[in-house]
Amino acid sequence: MTPPLHDAHPAGHGRRLPDTQQGMRRRNLARVMHTVSAEGPLSRAAVAARIDLTRAAVSTLVDELIRWELLEELGPERPGRVGRPGSALAISGHGPAGIGAEVGVDHLAVCSVDLRGVVRARAVRHGTNRGRPPQPVLAELTALIRQVVAEGEREGLWPAGLAVAVPGLVARDARTVVRAPNLDWHDLDLGPLLPGEPPLTVDNEANFGSLAELWLGDDTPRDFLHVSAEIGIGGAVVVDGRLLRGTRGFAGELGHVPVDPEGPRCACGGRGCLEQYAGEEAVLRAAGLTPGEDSVGQLAERAARGETDVCRALGGAGTALGIALTGAVNLLDPEAVVLGGALAALAPWLLPSLERELARRTAGTACAVAVSRLGSEGPLLGAAHSVVRTVLDDPAAVAERT
Amino acid sequence: MTPPLHDAHPAGHGRRLPDTQQGMRRRNLARVMHTVSAEGPLSRAAVAARIDLTRAAVSTLVDELIRWELLEELGPERPGRVGRPGSALAISGHGPAGIGAEVGVDHLAVCSVDLRGVVRARAVRHGTNRGRPPQPVLAELTALIRQVVAEGEREGLWPAGLAVAVPGLVARDARTVVRAPNLDWHDLDLGPLLPGEPPLTVDNEANFGSLAELWLGDDTPRDFLHVSAEIGIGGAVVVDGRLLRGTRGFAGELGHVPVDPEGPRCACGGRGCLEQYAGEEAVLRAAGLTPGEDSVGQLAERAARGETDVCRALGGAGTALGIALTGAVNLLDPEAVVLGGALAALAPWLLPSLERELARRTAGTACAVAVSRLGSEGPLLGAAHSVVRTVLDDPAAVAERT
DNA sequence: ACTAATTTGTTAAGCGCCCTGACGAAATAG
DNA sequence: CTATTTCGTCAGGGCGCTTAACAAATTAGT
Asked: Is the per-residue pLDDT at A323 higher than 50?
């Protein structure tokens, strides 16, 4: 079985390797990396058994990966079984690292993650970016990035790529922000405004969040629907371990699925979109609160205290989510629906009505609904990990770059 | 011991050939077949240029495919350009053929298609199957199949596979009909009731219809949403040239997407499902007609005559389709929506309201809506072609079977 | 008409990649 | 202490594509 070649959009390496011996070699190098990454320290023989190659072939692959410092030899395994003990191989903690960055409405964040998946450095700056012009915001982000990169370099890490999560739609070139309403950014190419050196990938925060769920989630299936809300409502569809992007890169826009065709007008031009019932502004209004800092925390706190207006508002949002998700589930038949972002924190008050609505509108057993453990950390971690995945997906490519 | 080469389901999900030299060889054989199939007669040099291999390599691949009678040498091409003219290669008109079969509510149909995609034999039996027990129906279908296979054998064709389209949900094993309400079949394994010889694949008629659209449509994109209605409303999602099936194989159930959360009750347990507005029964009732033979023809005829009740009913169905499709388009961002099956014949009266609804609910340019040229022929052709695709996808596999 | 240039298809040599089979090394079992 | 098992490596070989060269078949130019 071939390892899942990571989606084409983040990073240019998603291209299919050619059907030549070199391409085969590169795919097999990738299969070794994926196997070791997924199943902890493993001997050459164990890897060979898993990817269906001979020990001899795996030996040469591993030699090369060690020479490139992508794998490390940990030494002899603790015996336990009969026979000569194998020599444990592990993903290296040095070498390439993924840099993830997030442009939030109320903060900036950057982190670096090594090939093992361990977060090695972080930097955050709080304060609103709403309506600020892009240049100063991205200059601040660049400073945070340089700080994180420098910190990594002191530990023997070099940046293999930079992935930036933004709260808005991103074109398929993975550089241009088409529309980010809460930042008031439009048709903006981030390339020239960020460091030129590590290759850049920009994507929607909901997309990165769903990838984080896929890669880091506890037992997230390979087919699921991810719903996350910050200000608007974002969704992402993961099919067979791959993120579905759509022709223009706009797939997953759950927020503008019609819930009631004659409902209130929406900025998108439609009527009764989900966002009119479960978006932050709508929920706050229904709860009798005014928008402000940390609105989500406010909602959770008051709901926990049992304030009926807030509970009823969240219940209504859950019902609307349930209706919109019924349509999505009928269309996609996912294994699960995962609530992420701000929805994770509010899940206790959303789930009952959401699940009730989903169940009563579904023939047979309804789709399972899970709550993300990552919450608002998802987009940042997903961004950093997406870089790591491109390295695992084609280790030979990064070796060429050293 | 050879590894499993094909997914049970059609749609060529199963390009999971191992990363060994043999796997590479088989993939390259497939690439030659696909290239010749897609771009008509081609010289060895032209194929080599397209699939990025050397002429020498392509020569050996072609030799093998000719020895297996999957390719034919047509002889020297008409010159025109400077240089030695190439020798044109074409897909063979002999050898393996795909057998497609359709269990409709009102008919049975079988056809065979050669590797070139040409329909070589057909057989049809009219008469309702509604509520009949499966055994006699499938016995009749078997008789038609044998007839079509025999006809093909007289022309040097042998059946490489049998694909059966049914109006209902099919489990992922591609043999078991889980639920076909209009036939009143439930949890029925078709394997034992059909000829054992050509390998069997069963799938939903909407799925096969969408594949036909993908493979045979005029300029159907690789990402589209296919909507077809016979009695119920079926949908199918094609992403990057692959059919999206969902975990249980139930993806594409557009008919039960909620259009109005407080609408009329539906058999599925929900309320206001699309089928309650645009299903055959609902449209006939709204038009003041009673269900019967050829209801679709009736509707089209009366609408063409300008009967206001019928036109209004179809317009309402179009509006409901537009609302449901708005949600689907927001979620998937397809390149186009294609109306197939009975909807193709009724498109002139559905399209205006459908497109209006889609446009006014979409920010930016709305998704294009196209009408299928195949209409109700889609499922049968898609089934037969799905067999042909499995041959093109792994020609070495059929060579082993001779 | 004749030569030069161009393109095709084939052939032989070569290289890369994995497999087979055999070996020494390092552990356990008796 | 010996037999057994498993691991990692090495040499030899097969397979598949590439490179390079060549003959064949056509057009372009003089």
From this structure: yes
Helix A55-67 / helix A44-51 crossing angle, nearest 10 deg: 120
Q: What interhelical angle do A295-305 and A308-332 show, nearest 10?
A: 110
List, edge to edge, every strand of the sheet that includes B368-371.
B242-244, B233-239, B224-229, B336-341, B368-371
Angstrom distance, B60 CA to D15 C1'? 13
Closest CA to A205 of A70, A383, A86, A83: A383
Residue A361 to residue B239, Cβ atoms within 8 A: no
Residue B232 forms contact with A (CB below 8 Å): no
CB contact (8 A) between residue A270 and residue B362: yes
Contact (CB<8Å) A247/B327: no
Answer whether residue B367 shows pLDDT above 80: yes
Domain parsing of chain A, residue ranges: 12-91, 95-210+379-400, 218-373
What's the pLDDT at B13? 39
Closest chain A C-alpha to B215 CA, distance in angstroms: 19
A320 CA: distance to closest CA in chain B (Å): 9
The confidence band for B291, taking pLDDT boundaries of 50, 70 and 90, is confident
User: What number is the average pLDDT over the span B37-45?
Assistant: 93
For B328, the closest of A24, A255, A331 (CB atoms) is A331
For residue A70, pLDDT over 70 is answered with yes
Q: Which residues pair with B273 in a beta bridge?
A: B258
Q: Answer for A24: CB within 7 Å of strand C.
A: yes
Q: Taking 90 as the threshold, does the pLDDT of residue B36 lie above it?
A: yes
Q: Which CATH number fits domain B95-210+379-392: 1.10.10.10, 3.30.420.40, 3.40.50.300, 3.50.50.60?
A: 3.30.420.40
- A residues 281-340 near B, CB within 8 Å? 323-324, 326-328, 330-335
Answer whether CATH 1.10.3210.10 is correct for domain B21-94.
no
Q: What is the pLDDT of residue B199?
A: 95
User: Do A12-91 and A218-373 fold alike per CATH?
Assistant: no
- Provide the edge-to-edge strand list for the sheet that holds A185-189: A169-170, A176-180, A185-189
Question: Which B residues between 73 and 102 have a beta carbon under 7 A from any strand D atom?
Answer: 76, 79-85
In 3D space, the residue among B42, B104, B27, B35 whose CA is nearest the CA of residue B72 turns out to be B42
Q: Is the pLDDT of residue A267 over 60?
A: yes
Q: Does domain A218-373 correspond to CATH entry 3.40.50.300?
A: no
Percent with pLDDT over 90 in chain A = 77
Interchain CB contact of B360 with A (< 8 Å) = yes
- Using the predicted structure, report yes or no on whether residue A233 has a pLDDT greater than 50: yes
Architecture of the structural domain at A12-91: Orthogonal Bundle (1.10)
